[in-house]
Write a structure and sequence with these properties.
Blueprint: H1 9-17, E1 53-55, E2 58-65, E3 68-71, H2 76-86, E4 90-93, H3 101-105, E5 110-113, H4 123-137, E6 142-145, H5 152-163, H6 169-179, H7 186-194, H8 200-204, H9 219-238, H10 252-268, H11 277-298, H12 304-325
Parallel strand pairs: 3-6, 4-5, 4-6
Antiparallel strand pairs: 1-2, 2-3
Length: about 325
């Protein structure tokens, strides 16, 4: 199978250099715009449940402690309506995509955005997630989400549950398995197993100010990360759409998801610089194409013709975008 590459990293950087500016971060304490809700109360999952639950606008919801839930990204007004009906006051997103802060505010819910990777997270992020969760739980139930609610959100919730003394590492890993965290996400499982209970003083030492939106540090970094994700997908393709022997930490669907997230963040994020409207539209289109590949991988597609065809669409679209905008 021929080896295709998106664009040399130097060209990616040259394109990004025309557009780069450091990103801004949102206010950590959003104010509710419209906290009214006509929906009847919804009973959230509990620790007694041995399977995930789906609700209107929410999927794969699992409790990691009473009032501390993990699940998918809220889908439209229905998702936020359901969370409000559950009494949720704070959403913590560990997804790379930009959260719908306005949709949450309309239901009196605030967002905290602390993205993590599919390969896990460092101690600093664990402390931040733990402090954000502990403080938010004083106001009401908390909902932690990634995209599908199976991997990153479950890994984060498991580590927090251990850090706050709610659960042992082994029990938290058990909840991850209920959420459907795949065994190939070894970094996330390692974070949960390595977690330890934290002293209140350790948690208090972490700043209590958290962003409602986190952007990549720069457009250049986003381009670098997107290029790396695409290279990983090409390595997966060369391995016959399996985990490469020389890169056993790669999860094919996760790399496609990461690429989709990065492209959308670069398209929609406020990086402080003007961008041609068609350039942002092209990034969004590329993000949708990457998501189509991720959807196929997540659904268990194994036909290399189908998967490579999806990847070729992503590569061709990115090349077209680069040719058109590299000198702008």
């Amino acid at each position: 199978m021929a080896h295709h590459r998106l664009i040399p990293l130097s060209l990616a950087l040259a394109t990004a250099a025309c557009l780069v500016s450091c990103s801004s971060r949102g206010d950590a304490r959003p104010t509710s715009v419209d906290s009214t809700s006509s929906a009847p109360p919804v009973a959230p999952p509990t620790m007694a449940d041995a399977r995930p639950h789906d609700f209107a606008g929410l999927h794969n919801v699992v409790a990691f402690h009473d009032g501390y839930l993990s699940g998918s990204v809220p889908r439209g007004d229905a998702g936020f309506e359901t969370l409000a009906a559950m009494g949720v006051k704070t959403i913590i997103s560990v997804d790379g995509a930009l959260p719908d802060v306005a949709g949450a505010k309309r239901r009196g819910i605030r967002y905290v955005h602390l993205p993590i990777g599919y390969d896990g997270f460092d101690e600093r992020r664990r402390l931040e997630l733990t402090r954000a969760s502990r403080d938010a739980m004083r106001e009401g139930p908390v909902y932690v989400h990634c995209h599908h609610g199976k991997h990153r959100s479950a890994g984060a919730a498991a580590a927090v549950a251990v850090g706050l003394g709610w659960s042992s590492p082994e029990a938290s890993v058990g909840r991850m398995k209920i959420a459907g965290t795949a065994p190939t996400y070894t970094g996330l499982y390692a974070c949960a197993l390595a977690a330890t209970a934290l002293r209140p003083s350790e948690i208090d030492a972490v700043s209590a100010e958290f962003p409602e939106v986190s952007l990549p540090t720069s457009f250049v970094q986003g381009m670098i990360d997107a290029d790396a994700a695409l290279e990983h997908l090409q390595a997966v393709e060369r391995a016959g759409w399996a985990v490469p022997a020389d890169h056993p930490d790669l999860v094919p669907a996760a790399e496609a998801r990461r690429l989709a997230d990065l492209l959308r963040v670069m398209a929609d994020g406020d990086h402080g610089q003007p961008r041609p409207a068609d350039f942002a539209a092209a990034l969004r289109k590329n993000g949708v194409l990457a998501q189509h590949l991720e959807d196929r991988l997540a659904a268990g597609e194994t036909d290399p013709t189908v998967l490579s065809g999806r990847l070729r669409l992503v590569i061709a679209s990115c090349k077209d975008c680069h040719i058109k905008h590299r000198d702008n």
